Amino acid sequence: KVSKFQTVLWLPLLLLPLPLPAMQPCDPSSAFFGFMGVTSALVFANLGAAYGTAKSGVGIASMGVMRPDMIMKSIIPVVMAGVLGIYGLITAVIINGKMDAANYSAYSGYAHLGAGLTVGMSSLAAGLAIGIVGDAGVRANAQQPRLFVGMILILIFAEALGLYGLIVGLVVASTAEGKGKGLCSPYNV
N or C terminus of the chain: which is more exposed, having fewer CB within 10 Å? Predict the structure, then answer.
């Protein structure tokens, strides 16, 4: 039979913290996903920028034959498409700066891949929209100058798609560092 005195002696021992199991080492292949995020941000954003520039440039060249005085006014879609490539560059540099070789968890790798894909694919979609609208818009603007404001508004909304992706991608990439720390131990120790 256990007395009350013996129960009181063992009670503090039950409140002691249990030793935690050893933390898993960080997987070196997690960096692969981070670098794929860097790559996808830059490559897909530049694909969107290239398509938007090329498609709008064809429309400008075609329109410039009949209305060479409107070429500089019609260059706006090309500039807006070029900004999409800058979105990818910014994201790629930020993700690359947050990568730590020894302490890079799988969570951080997946988050950086998601951030890169978010920015890259959003910029690709925006580039497709800017290219199509820019091509048709500058040709139509050459025939009817009152269409200019409408064309610019449509281009702004198309550019906003890439900007939304940039905002979400930067939020995901910046919060991954804090949430991904301490999930694994350095693998080179």
Answer: N
